[in-house]
């Protein structure tokens, strides 16, 4: 497969993305219900002996910031993979019902298996995400034309609605389950700990490796299955592996942070508009833009809800839903 040239604006976009990422990190550490002064920020980051209240606030926010960056990057790359696998420019884990499938398995684990550890959440969420992804793709593949973008979105929406009803049916008669599940359900990075970050890292690395390794073949498949097969790509295996990477990334994020929607859609769509369709550049920039979007949303949620906070899943839904409607109205549902 012949490599395409590097987009001319890629270096500038990369630099802008990294600068925005740095600004987001500083904002996440400094802003919230308690505003942190510059010297307190420096003390919290570099002077571990400092025992001022502001420095301690900064230290507590570090794990939250790192976790937010990881979750945003994972959702951004997951969106890139799912859009490529389904050839649907508005595909997203939340739109295809994958997040809801993970949520159902987690609430079943809370209600019937009394789970409570990060690894238990991850295992059940990954299983739910994978089964739902296979189910939605199977339903969307039925009938004439196979798995078209429009049919996949419809199948995902219907599946998500059905699974959401099951989640509600399980929770309502169980008040203890509802108390444990309700904060997780809206999507939040506020309870992030270093143990959650450590549990996240292996899955993040595995998903990112899959994304980067499959990017050239996915570029070929975007030209059509026949063209890709002619270039030696096994399209069935490629779809399976790439979908596994997407499910892995969105599943572990859903397990630890809750079902945060629209980040993958927004991150990847914006990057495709700027850089074009080449996944060798879309994937890394989607990771950066996803991290920026989620971290900015988290900071906005803290400022809007001060002295409490508005969960990040609510903020991303508030931003993402109108944009999704706009994209759906303008899109002609063409394959990527």
From TrEMBL:
Gene3D superfamilies linked to this entry: ABC transporter involved in vitamin B12 uptake, BtuC
This protein's UniProt keywords: Cell membrane, Membrane, Transmembrane, Transmembrane helix, Transport
GO biological process, one term: siderophore-iron import into cell
Entry's Gene Ontology molecular function annotations: transmembrane transporter activity
Localization annotation: Cell membrane
UniProt xrefs under InterPro entries: ABC_BtuC-like (IPR037294), ABC_transptr_permease_BtuC (IPR000522)
Cited SUPFAM superfamilies: ABC transporter involved in vitamin B12 uptake, BtuC
Membrane disposition: Multi-pass membrane protein
Gene Ontology CC entries for this record: plasma membrane
Cited Pfam families: FecCD
Transmembrane regions: 12-31, 66-83, 95-114, 121-140, 152-172, 193-218, 238-267, 279-304, 310-329
Family membership noted in the UniProt record: Belongs to the binding-protein-dependent transport system permease family. FecCD subfamily.
Official protein name in the record: Iron ABC transporter permease
Organism: Cohnella zeiphila
């Amino acid at each position: 497969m012949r490599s395409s040239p590097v987009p001319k604006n890629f270096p500038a976009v990369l630099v802008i993305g990294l600068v925005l990422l740095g600004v987001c990190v500083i904002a996440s550490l400094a802003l919230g219900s308690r505003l942190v002064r510059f010297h307190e920020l420096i003390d919290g980051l570099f002077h571990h002996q400092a025992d001022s209240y502001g420095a301690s606030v900064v230290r507590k926010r570090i794990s939250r910031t790192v976790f937010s960056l990881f979750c945003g990057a994972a959702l951004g790359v997951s969106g890139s993979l799912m859009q490529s696998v389904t050839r649907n420019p508005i595909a997203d884990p939340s739109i295809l019902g994958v997040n809801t499938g993970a949520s159902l398995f987690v609430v079943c684990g809370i209600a019937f298996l009394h789970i409570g550890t990060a690894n238990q959440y991850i295992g059940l969420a990954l299983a739910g995400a994978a089964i739902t992804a296979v189910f939605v793709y199977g339903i969307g593949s039925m009938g004439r034309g196979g798995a078209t973008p429009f049919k996949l979105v419809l199948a995902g929406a219907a599946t998500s609605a059905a699974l959401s009803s099951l989640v509600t049916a399980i929770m309502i008669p169980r008040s203890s389950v509802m108390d444990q599940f309700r904060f997780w359900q809206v999507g939040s990075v506020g309870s992030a700990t270093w143990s959650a970050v450590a549990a996240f890292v292996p899955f993040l690395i595995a998903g990112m490796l899959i994304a980067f390794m499959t990017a050239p073949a996915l570029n070929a498949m975007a030209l059509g299955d026949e063209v890709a097969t002619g270039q030696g790509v096994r399209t069935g295996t490629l779809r399976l592996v790439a979908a596994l990477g997407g499910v892995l990334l969105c599943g572990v994020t859903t397990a630890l942070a809750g079902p945060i929607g629209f980040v993958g859609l927004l991150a990847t769509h914006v990057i495709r508009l700027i850089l074009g369709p080449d996944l060798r550049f879309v994937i890394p920039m989607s990771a950066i833009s996803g991290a920026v979007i989620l971290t900015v949303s988290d900071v906005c949620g803290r400022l809007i809800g001060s002295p409490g906070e508005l969960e990040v899943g609510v903020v991303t839904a508030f931003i993402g839903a109108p944009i999704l409607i706009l994209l759906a109205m303008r899109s002609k549902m063409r394959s990527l």
